[in-house]
Design brief:
elongated, 524 residues, 73% helix, single chain, mainly alpha, 30 helices
Length: 524
């Protein structure tokens, strides 16, 4: 607020200063020097004497003298006298909004809320007032509405004050909080940022702005707001960790890792930093670093379940089946209701060809979380490896039912149908009229799988339909090429098919891998 630097210790005079700063044209700096000096000394009585002498000299014709004297009288509990003074002023300045706002506050202090509300409504609805371009009265009106419990009308007044250029920190903060409480996230964030600009070296509004931007799903703006926090708190590990999580949410994993590494350097003894960093390192394929991170956490707390599960997942990626199995079992010894740990154990056992035990582990995971497509897929793979073709396909069908976007399960399901030579079901699954995932990767691969199914089907058909569907998908998703996808199964099927079908499949796969231009696909 404009008065804070000079009046931050003037506790007795502060309410009068706030009212004068809002209602006097030019703010507190524009009041009479004698009044100003007394207020700065926190002498409310001295200020009252100075304002009374000035009012007696100038009379009610002088708006500033009238308003100053009335407000100071009000603060010294002479409220009826203050109202009478305002009324005399209004006889001369009938349309003066500042006098009417002063009277509204006085009525409110007297407990006459209905009268105060009536005065307020008349002021804010009077668009002809010559003071409408002054932000002070509008923020004062907003405060009064807030005291009356009308937050919506307060927002309207504060927004008008903002529009007219208020530089009052408290007003902008209040407006930001009101928007935040109404889930108006974007506007709340903008107001918090404006408050931060006014407040100078304060980080609270920037933190609030970041959170509001995140709620508005404006992740880049949230990151930028947090950068302002880091500029002033660059040695605070929690802020670096929070920024790292923000980068991860925005999909910038490299920056997320850098920020979390900074947090671990600033405070190397916080397991929560290390585990988030390890999760990210595993996600980007830095498996050895992830393993070291999880082990760092476990060195502080050997029963940290999330770290045990992370270490098991990382060991599986590294191919260290012994470590993966041991860590998964350690986690289950602590809590055998962890579906993720049962799934990790199942993956390790399956890789060791302990199929029956792997099936049992995946079944435990499914009992705990029957809606996870990943666990159903694990069970399907284990059953298929054990020669239970129908059981494996049933599990894959359940995975498809559980998969919210069909993508993760669509490809494994199609490949399983190919392995099992369930061609009729594969033809149904890849039929363009059959509802399935619309993800670009599936749209690109489905025509190829369909062509394989047609080639293996009882009645081979003209491949032109598949080729045309593939061309359309490539035109629509050329920015996805070359496609990062394991197509070993389809490459093997091209060899099995041979002839015309095998040649077309090979060419389509070459387009996906970026080794052939779509325009060079053979059509005859």
């Amino acid at each position: 607020m404009a008065h804070i630097p000079a009046f931050e210790d003037s506790l007795v005079s502060l309410p009068a200063v706030i009212a004068l700063d809002a209602l006097i044209v030019g703010g507190i700096e524009a009041v009479d020097d004698g009044v100003y000096d007394a207020l700065e000394r926190d002498s409310l009585g001295g200020a009252l004497e100075e304002s009374e002498a000035r009012y007696e000299a100038l009379g009610p014709d002088d708006l500033e003298a009238t308003l100053t004297y009335a407000l100071l009288l009000h603060e010294t509990e002479s409220r009826e006298e203050a109202v009478a003074l305002v009324d005399r002023g209004l006889e001369i300045h009938a349309d003066e909004s500042t006098l009417r706002l002063a009277k509204a506050e006085m009525r409110m202090e007297q407990g006459r809320s209905d009268d105060a509300r009536q005065l307020l409504d008349a002021v804010v609805e009077d668009d002809e007032s010559s003071e409408t371009a002054d932000p002070g009265p509008w923020r004062f009106a907003g405060d009064l509405y807030l005291d009356l419990g009308d937050g919506d009308r307060a927002v309207e007044c504060y927004e008008t004050s903002m529009r007219y250029g208020t530089d009052d920190y408290e007003t902008v903060i209040r407006l930001a909080q009101l928007h935040r409480d109404r889930d108006h996230w974007r506007r709340a964030a903008e107001c918090f940022e404006r408050a931060a600009d006014i407040g100078g070296h304060v980080v609270g509004p920037w933190r609030e702005a970041a959170e509001c931007w995140r709620e508005a799903n404006r992740l880049q703006e949230a990151l930028e707001a947090r950068e302002h926090v880091l500029e002033q708190r660059e040695t605070t590990p929690d802020d670096w960790a929070e920024q790292g999580l923000g980068y991860r949410e925005a999909g910038d994993l490299g920056q997320a890792i850098d920020a979390l590494e900074k947090a671990t350097r600033l405070d190397p003894h916080r397991p929560e930093y290390w585990i988030e960093l390890a999760h990210l390192q595993l996600e980007v394929g830095r498996v050895e670093e992830a393993i070291r991170g999880y082990q760092k956490v476990l060195s502080h707390d050997e029963d940290f379940l999330e770290a045990l599960e992370g270490l098991a997942a990382a060991a599986l990626e590294q191919g260290d089946l012994e470590l993966a199995e041991k860590t998964a079992r350690d986690a289950l010894d602590l809590d055998d209701t962890r579906a993720t740990s049962w799934a990790h154990l199942g993956r390790a056992l399956r890789a060791r060809n302990a199929i029956d035990e792997a099936i049992e582990a995946f079944e435990h995971a499914i009992d705990l979380d029957p809606e996870s497509p990943v666990y159903w897929q694990g069970l399907a793979d284990a059953r298929l490896d054990g020669g239970d073709r129908e059981g494996g396909l049933d599990a894959l069908r359940r995975a498809i039912e559980c998969d919210s976007n069909d993508l993760d399960m669509a490809l494994p399901y199609a490949e399983a149908l190919l392995r099992a030579r369930e061609i009729e079901e594969l033809l149904d699954w890849t039929d363009p009229e059959t509802p399935s995932s619309e993800h670009p990767r599936w749209r690109l691969l489905r025509p190829i799988i369909r062509l394989v199914a047609d080639g293996l089907g009882p009645e081979q058909v003209d491949p032109a339909t598949c080729l045309e569907a593939f061309r359309r998908a490539v035109d629509s998703y050329s920015d996805r090429l070359p496609l990062q996808q394991d197509v070993d199964m389809l490459e093997r099927m091209a060899l099995v098919l041979g002839g015309e079908y095998g040649r077309y499949v090979e060419q389509m796969l070459e387009v996906l891998e970026g080794r052939r231009s779509p325009g060079t696909l053979e059509t005859t």
